[in-house]
Amino acid sequence: MSLRFDSFVLAASTADLADEPAARDHADAIEFRMDLADDPLAALEAYDGDLPILATNRAAWEGGEWAGTDEDRLETLAEATALAGVDAIDVELASILEGGAEGLLETARDRDVSIVASAHDFEGTPPRTELVRTLTEAGKYADVAKLAVTAESTADTLALLSATEQLTAHGDAVATMAMGEVGSHTRAVAPVYGSKIGYAPVDPAEATAPGQYDLETLAELVGRLE
Ligand SMILES: O=C1C[C@@](O)(C(=O)O)C[C@@H](O)[C@@H]1O
User: Fold this and answer.
1) For residue 18, is it within any domain?
2) Name one GO biological process term (predicted).
3) Which of 124, 143, 184, 221 could potentially form a cystine with 211 if both were Cys, beta carbons 3.0 to 4.6 Å apart?
């Protein structure tokens, strides 16, 4: 397993693993959005790229496009953990707290696949104390606690960066980003405060969240601020 997240990982987000060669120059990993792909398990089985894969199978209720049941969604993700190239999975914190992901987490750990527990707020940015609480909760179950919020003001972005700094200083591995235009710069800056994962599409037309930079731009910005 090569995705330990002990240093910053730039993930190229895509629904098409054929993008991997184009991502290789700038990315450390591929975030494969299984929910956006036609036959994700077949694509993973055929994968022969160099970059390790963080597999995400995002629920519709968390901003994704998985069309089936939650049970099938998590089962499909569990099947992905057996495939070569899959080094990490993203599991929604809400699924974990509901109790539906226990088997998946156990399977991932048995197979030495890293776990990212994620939470998203597409409406706004909760108060700083709540950001800290969510990240702390997610960190109990995962190798990385990830939180994406929607920033409506620069005060929101500061709250997110401050929470990122606090958790990192405490020794926790977190990944944070503010979605939306106001939040874009956090994608470049959050790694300075300890954020361990950044996401960017190879093709800017295929962004997987509002306010993302294209891969080459984010690689350049993060590299310069390092
Ligand atoms: O959860 C995340 C973070 C993200 O939403 C972002 O804001 O960059 C992009 C998604 O592809 C990924 O699964």
Assistant:
1) yes
2) 3,4-dihydroxybenzoate biosynthetic process
3) 184
4 assigned to some structural domain: no
Any domain includes 72? yes
Name the residue among 47, 24, 35, 20 with its Cα closest to residue 208: 35
Range of the domain at 221: 9-225
pLDDT at residue 226, rounded to an integer: 87
| Maximum alpha-carbon separation in the chain | 45
> Helices 70-80 & 102-110, crossing angle to 10 degrees?
0
Residues making up the annotated binding site are 31-33, 58, 187, 208, 212
Helix (H) or strand (E) holding 175: strand 174-179
Q: Is residue 179 within 6 Å of ligand 1 at its C-beta?
A: yes
**Structural domain contains residue 14:** yes
Tell me how far CA of residue 53 lies from CA of 2, 18, 27, 111, 202, in angstroms.
10, 13, 11, 14, 15
Closest CA to 90 of 110, 64, 67: 64
- CATH for 112: 3.20.20.70
Q: What pTM did the predictor assign?
A: 0.97
Task: Give the separation between CA 1 and CA 183, rounded to whole angstroms.
Answer: 32
Kindly report, residue by residue over 96-112, the tens digit of the pLDDT: 999 999 999 999 999 99
> Measured between alpha carbons, how far apart are the two ends of the chain, in Å?
25
Over residues 68-79, the pLDDT tens digits come to 999 999 999 999
ipTM of the complex: 0.97
To which residue do tokens 């998590």 refer?
74
